[in-house]
Please model this.
Amino acid sequence: MSDDLELNSENQNPDLPAKDESIKVTGMFEDWFLDYASYVILERAVPAIEDGFKPVHRRILHSMKDLDDGRYTKVANIVGHTMQYHPHGDASIGDAIVQIGQKDLLIDTQGNWGNILTGDSAAASRYIEARLSKFALEVVFNSKTTEWQISYDGRKQEPVNLPVKFPMILAQGAEGIAVGLSTKILPHNFIELIDASIKHLQNKRFSIFPDFPTGGVVDVSDYNDGLRGGKLRVRAEINVRDKNTLVINEIPYGTNTSTLIDSILKANDKGKIKIKKIEDNTSSEVEILIHLPNNISPDKTIDALFAFTNCEVSISPLSCVIIDDKPHFLGVSELLKLSTQHTVDLLKSELEIKLGELEEQWHFSSLEKIFIEKRIYRDIEEEETWEGVIEAIDKGLQPHIKHLKRKVTRDDIVRLTEIRIKRISKFDLDKAEQKIEALEGEIEKIKFHLSNLIDYAIDYFKDLKSKYSAGKERKTQIRIFEDIEAQKVVIRNTKLYVNRKEGFVGTAMKKEEYVTDCSDIDDIICFTEDGTMMVTKVDNKTFIGKNIIYVGIFKKKDKRTIYNIIYRDGKAGYNYMKRFAVTSITRDREYSVGKGKPGTKVLYFSCNPNGEAEVVSIFLRQKKGLKRLRFDLDFSDMAIKGRGVKGNLVSKMPIKKVEFKEEGVSTLKPRKIWFDETVRRLNVDERGELLGAFKGEDRLLIVRQNGIVKTIVPELTTHFENDIVVMEKWNPKKPISLVYWEGEKERYYVKRFLMENSDKDELIITDHQDSQLEIISTDYIPRIEIEYKKQRGKDRKPSEIFNLEEFIAVKGIKAQGNQLTSEPVKQIDLIEPLPHESDKVTEDDEDNESKDENQQSTLFD
Model:
């Protein structure tokens, strides 16, 4: 709308312009908009830094304090009472009360207040009740330190801000959308906020991170102190109950079981994941059971749930608060510092008020003592006027008030005249002096606190922690997340077809040749007979180029899939061979495996997922003078190089055909695998502890604290529990030795066994509830040292060292083992094992492996 817009007035009101006159509204809309925006920001959407409340929450708590008598009050009554202060209707007040109640900090609730886990709403306000919590009564209110203002209708007094002595804005969080800005302050842990406030007062560094009532796991790497641009990734807590069942016990903040299950069902309908059914057993705690079909990997499904459903959500915080009637964007660390300082200021104000009150009590108690002890009340018996009485008392006090801390005022004397005769007659000088001494002690105590205000504030926070921290431990685990590639975990439930001759690839060509299963987010890689290579996204039907010789799923950064090719160069007609990997590429761009010359033709092609190098037979065309028409080529004799190289010359003579002769083995070096304790995942990126170099048949040995042992293929998608005590490359010939406490017989037992090649969980201790694993070793000749307890009336038995190889032979995995000792044991320690010849062999193998890697890396370079 332009600034010179004019409106014609047809109103005949004499106070308004005549019909022919115009009203210019230039700037009006801007003023009105700014007024409205300011009102929404300050009075509705954004919390104040002083108490962390929006106006509606502040007025609700103030109303509840008005109504507080220690008993529960109907929420409908609280809503009606709050409407004296809040001019926005009962619906907004009722919703706000439920929000406060569900945070379980300031309000004690009774009745059905809804369920944040399931998303169920609260009952109507006439059916539910509430009262202020003990924490709120102690921390939120103090009429003596509250600044008051007139309510909107001028009938009541309401607080400008409540004198909250706690970082409430961070404990409860806040969310609101205003005009031109918004705020999203996430809730933080009660105990951690107190600890951080104490550290700040002690001039120590601190850090605080969100903690959600729904639990879950959060990655705070990009939190950015809650400022704009920060991001949190929050995941559900998902565990494997068995090979066909996953269980979700905690959900991400901002979701509930209903929305979470809906997102899982949608992902299943779209084919991103594959599940059989879902059961929701949630009540006071979350329990969602996800049943999987047979032959579906639980670990891969967990990653797919994170990638395609609300089991992982991203939250963008935006910390905005009102300071001095203006919005400010501050990090949560700065908010905590300001809140802590505000608490210190309030504590100081309370102490100063208390000091003033005590000094007034001391002053009047001293005056009262003088008035009665010195019998000054008798001086007024002869006085006939009020002024005479005042003067007589004042005159009688003068010789005895030099020790008082302030002058005696007329009001003091009037109060003395109000003392009853009965009180004077029963006056006890000793008790009066004791009272004055007690007041002096209190005064000194208050002055000490004021002179040591920071220590007093620290003690205040510690007292809050001791009183109210029970049940407020952190619910959300903090963990660094590994990145999940959607293409690696998506369920491939679509079939890919190819028309090789015409050059088309797609999922809608059901009458053509079937290639493989795929998903709609996959990329495919294609090679044609003329040496053209292209990567494109899966679609219904895509033209690649005529005479397609290979179609497959393309994996980015895949260095282990090796393509072996023999081709005829189009320019000179010479024949070349090459081996290469395709790790990165521009989608839908054509590349040539040769030099791109017209007439280039691929004579032999193979795709090898683990770098296998086969042997092929070359048949040359007959030519005069050519004696050798057939010879063999071994691709293992050739180094793996880049896609763009020309390759090695095979023959200048024309090749009639190339035939596969025999399979080869992988020419790639064993893959080194690390375990990252932070994210509890395997990786090949050199993060964490090196587990070893693994070939295709190698497995990983896993032993858990609960006595479960198994061997697994080291897949990077595997999830690992928190109680793993052994994780190493499995050597089938190496016995496993362990000491465990047998619960039924209450004795320590020893056993040694060889692990079988199985993914099945095996229990290596007895199944008694008190049985527990004490020590486990994968050394050839492990040794333990036993320290015995001292028995009454006997000398302590000296410590003993046991060679477990000599103590017990290798037996079956199900064997109970041999009793270690019948003596009472204080401690068992695993000590340095004895050397074994196999250790030397292993070292030599590692040296040779290292040499092979160096040679191969030179060859690759």
About this structure: Confidence is low (pLDDT under 50) at residues 1-12, 846-861.
